Amino acid sequence: MADLSISYLDLPLKNPLVASSSPLAEKIENLQRMEEKGAAAIVLPSLFEEQIELQNLGFPGASSGFLPAELQHIPNMHAYNQGANGYLAYLYKAKKAVKIPIIGSLNGYYSGGWVQYGRLIEAAGADALELNVYYLATKPHIDAHEIENMYLELVSNVKSAVSIPVAVKLSPYFSATANIAQRLAKAGARGLVLFNRFYQPDLDLDTLEVVPNLSLSTSEELRLRLRWAAILHGQIPTDLAITGGVHTAQDVVKCMLAGANVAMMTSALLMRGIGYTSKVYMDLLNWMEEHEYESVHQMRGSMSQKSVTDPTAFERANYMRVLRSYAMKER
Ligand SMILES: Cc1cc2nc3c(=O)[nH]c(=O)nc-3n(C[C@H](O)[C@H](O)[C@H](O)COP(=O)(O)O)c2cc1C
């Protein structure tokens, strides 16, 4: 049988399938089922910066109707994660309930309570911490340099406070992705998670309101991640995780070939149920056997930019080729 083991964030994993942060991980019985069905690690739903803010101001788990005027901008998170301290208690229980690594997650963009909660998440037993920096650069006077420095400061502040490995879930919208990846590694990131999915609001033409719109991914979204994993693999001294568009064992194989350590799933599990993990696991094993791969290690990075015969396939030359191939098909 092929050896599926792999290391991610210095954690020895039995295979590269990781359940990414989602509401499925809000229940202990779901965590146990994920483990039983083959997930090798689980990222918990994020603790949001806004929840930390509420906790520190003395309004843990308050619904927005009960908040003072200056905190009314914080969305109603009453039912979410049982507040910041509830999150820590849940994490502690989660660690007791399963044997696979549990990765805590913090979501926000300024380091206010992150150092404090990074420490608490470590104390509650997390094996690693994922920082989901969700910042939209909407202010014309804030330049890219300032934003990148904000990311770097946040990572180095959290990293200096905890000894567990820290991963950063990145946006795909940097002007210089390879450069920020390298600087994040220097700031202490042990892993990069490619990429955050930003949910774009829609305009409701009946009510003329801006409405939040969450659509689940398809495998189409994987290609952006594959390209960047392939480019970063071997160039940046961090582990790589791919999140966004992993739906099948073939998708997982592509993640490994591009150079990722792990492939994460949320949409696939929300659509098909947690039990679907075991199908992906079995299909992965079968694919590797059919194609005579002995281990995930052997596959990993074998189609990264450094390894393929035509490295320009990941760059601008590929863009021209794609356009030309379409024009020729049409004639
Ligand atoms: C309903 C839902 C809730 C999510 N909650 C979180 C979260 O709390 N923190 C986070 O970092 N990502 C969160 N995500 C993003 C997922 O972890 C994942 O990165 C994203 O869905 C892309 O992967 P996929 O294509 O497998 O769905 C959430 C996604 C969904 C669909």
Considering the chains and any ligands shown, give keywords for the structure.
alpha/beta; binds flavin mononucleotide; eight-stranded parallel barrel; globular; TIM Barrel; two-stranded antiparallel ribbon; 331 residues; single chain; 12 helices
Write down how many β-strands occur, each being a DSSP E stretch of 2 or more residues. Answer: 13
Task: Tell me the count of domains.
Answer: 1
Class of secondary structure makeup: alpha/beta
| Major β-sheet strand ordering | 3-4-6-7-8-9-12-13
Examine the coordinates and then state which fold CATH places here, giving the name of the CATH topology. TIM Barrel
Shape: globular
Helix-strand topology string: EEEHEEHHEHEHEHEEEHEHEHHHH
What is the helical fraction, as a range of percent?
A: 25-40%
What profile does the largest beta sheet have? 8 strands, parallel, barrel
Mean pLDDT: 90
CATH C-level label: Alpha Beta
Radius of gyration: 20 Å
Through-space gap between termini: 48 Å
**Total of helices:** 12
CATH superfamily: Aldolase class I
